[in-house]
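Ticket #4471: structure output looks truncated?

Reporter: J.K.
Steps to reproduce: submitted the chain below (410 residues) through the standard prediction queue, then opened the result file.
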Amino acid sequence: MNHPCARANRWILLLCAASLCAACTTKTPTADVIVIEFGDTEVDAADAVFGVDAEEVEAAHSLDEMLEPIRLAHGLPGLAAAVLFEGNIVAVGAAGRRKLGDEAALTVDDRFHLGSCTKAMTATLAARLVGAGVIGWETTLAQGFAHIADEMNVAYRDVTLVDLLSHRAGFAADIPADIWGQLWSDPRPVAELRAWFAQEMLTLGPSVTPQTQVVYSNAGFMIAGAMLEHATGRSWEALIEEHLFAPLEMTNCGFGTPATVGTVDAPWGHAEGAEGAVPVAPGPGGDNPRALGPAGTVHCSLADWAKFAAVHVAGARQSSDFLSAQAFETLHAPRTLDPPFALGWLALSRSWAGGIALHHTGSNTMFYADLWLAPARDIAFMVVTNRAGPTASAAAEAVYGELIPVWVTQ
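Returned output as attached by the reporter:
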C-alpha cells in the first residue's frame, strides 16, 4: 500500500500568527499554523474500513500501538489521534506522557490546546450570531465600532466581518511589540482588553491594502471577537460557552493551558530547549496572552473536539440543523485562492477526501493540533501532541500516513 504522501507535491507553509518580533523575545509563545497539504493518495480498497459499529470501537480500533512508534521516532512527550466517521469516533488512541519526567500517562480523555484551530470556532460563533440577527457578515468595522469610527484609519472602515475571518483585513502577521507587550501585562477584564486592542490596531495603517491580499494574522480574529463582544455586551469566552460548548455538550473544553496550575491533571506543553523538549508549567506563561482568545486559546478533549468537527462535516453534507445550510456554505467557501482560506478553515481539493477537505492546524509553540475534515466521505481525522514545531507536524503527517489508507476508500 502506498504512503499517502508518496506522490504528493507537498508544501509546508508556516504562517506566523502573532509571531515574536525581535523586541519581544522573553515570554512570547505564538500561535503558529503549519499547514500540511496531502496530495493524491493511492488506496487499496480491500484495506478500507467503513461502517464500523461505534459500540465496538474501544476494543477493536485502539490506535495506541500505531501511535507509540511514531511518538518515539519524533521525540514527542505524548501523541493522540482519533478518526470520526458518520459522527462517531470509530478509532482513537493515545501514547506517551502528559509531562516529560512525570509518570502520568497520556489518555484519550485528556484535554489538548488547539491553538489556531480555535479560529474555526470563532467563525462558527459569528455564524450563530449572524443567524440570530445580532450582526451581519458584511458588517463593517466602521459599523461594528461606530463609537471609534472617526479615529479609525480610513483604510479599515469598510473591512467586513468576513474579511476579518478570512485574513483579508490588511493586518500584519506580527502584532506590534508595544501592543503585544501590553497584552501580557494588562490586568483589565479580557473583553475590555480586546476592545483596547481593537482601538489601538485600527488607528494604525494596514500592512497591505485591505480586501486585496491574504496575510495570515491573529489580529483579524481578535478584532472579530471584539466586534462580537461589542455587539452582544458579553465576552467572547462567554459567547463560545453559550453558543458552542453548551449546545454541542462540549463539557471537557476551556481556555488557556489544559492542566490546572500546580498539577499534572492534563498534558503540559513543552517548549524547545537546547537538548530537546522542556515542560512548561500551566498558567499564564504556558499559553499566549488571554486576549488572543478568538485566534487561539481553546483547549478540548478529542471527544469534544470531535463533536465540533462532526457538526461541520454534517453541515457540509446539509445534514445539520446547528446552522443553516447557507451559513455552513458561507463558512466553508474559500474566499481566497492561494492559500484557499475559508472562514476559520482552509478549503483544499483532495482526491482522498472525495473533493474539498477542510483543514487547519494550531500551535502556541508548546502544543500542536491538526484537523482534516472530508465531508464527501463523512469522515474526519485529528492529531494532537504536547510538543510543537516541525517534529510535531512531521509526526502528524506520519499518523495520517497510517490512517488515511486504512480509513478512506477512493
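Triage note (M.O.): checked the attachment and the full C-alpha cell line is present. The longest helix spans residues 390-407.
Status: closed, working as intended.
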